[in-house]
């Protein structure tokens, strides 16, 4: 029993000395937006809910005699999964008066993933539109 206790104490001391010798040499890695490992000091914390990390491209209006759609593509550049993304638009007639709204949403937008959205409205005389807000959870 006495020999086992000495062996355990000695192995613990050896493990502790190995751990101490390795201190200061550990490098922690974070994944960047492309999923590649980077040293922690080379990556910055990105706010997953900041709309500037979700640019909208290819935005256009498509209308027929019964409805109007605002279409576009949202790309998740936050580096993290978004649980929910929603775009809300205001719709205006040719005089500039607000005549309605259009909205689209999606659940689960992975880092780097693109979402081709269609925000629908039953308004048919839409001359212009404006993005009111983007919600991200």
Overall description:
With 137 residues, this protein is α+β, with helices and mostly antiparallel strands. It has two domains: 2-42, no CATH class; 51-136, Immunoglobulin-like (Sandwich), CATH 2.60.40.3230. It is 15% helix and 45% strand. It is elongated, with a radius of gyration of 27 Å. It starts with a helix and ends with a strand. Mean pLDDT is 80; it is low at 5-32.
Shape: elongated
Assess the beta-strand content as a share of residues: over 45%
Q: The biggest beta sheet, please?
A: 3 strands, antiparallel
- Pattern of helices and strands: HEEEEEEEE
CATH topology of the largest domain: Immunoglobulin-like
Mean pLDDT: 80
- The CATH architecture classification of the largest domain is Sandwich
Distance between the termini: 58 Å
What's the alpha carbon Rg, rounded to whole Å?
A: 27 Å
Q: What is the count of β-strands?
A: 8
Count every helix, treating DSSP H or I runs of 4 or more residues as helices. 1
Percent of residues in helices: 10-25%
Strand order of the largest sheet: 3-4-7
- Unreliably modeled segments: 5-32
Q: What is the count of distinct domains? A: 2
- What is the CATH C level class of the largest domain, in words? Mainly Beta
Report the structural category.
Answer: alpha+beta
């Amino acid at each position: 029993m006495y020999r086992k206790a000495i062996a355990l104490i000695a192995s613990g001391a050896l493990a502790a000395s190995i751990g101490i010798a390795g201190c200061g040499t550990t490098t922690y890695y974070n994944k960047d937006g492309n999923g590649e490992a980077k040293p922690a000091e080379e990556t910055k914390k990105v706010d997953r809910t900041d709309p500037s990390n979700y640019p909208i491209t290819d935005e256009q209006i498509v209308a027929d005699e019964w409805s109007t759609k605002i279409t576009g593509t949202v790309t998740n550049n936050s580096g993290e999964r978004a649980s929910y993304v929603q775009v809300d638009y205001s719709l205006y007639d040719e005089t500039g008066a607000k005549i309605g709204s259009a909205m689209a949403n999606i659940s689960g937008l992975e880092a780097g993933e693109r979402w081709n959205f269609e925000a629908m409205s039953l308004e048919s005389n839409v001359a212009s539109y404006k993005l009111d807000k983007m919600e991200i959870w």
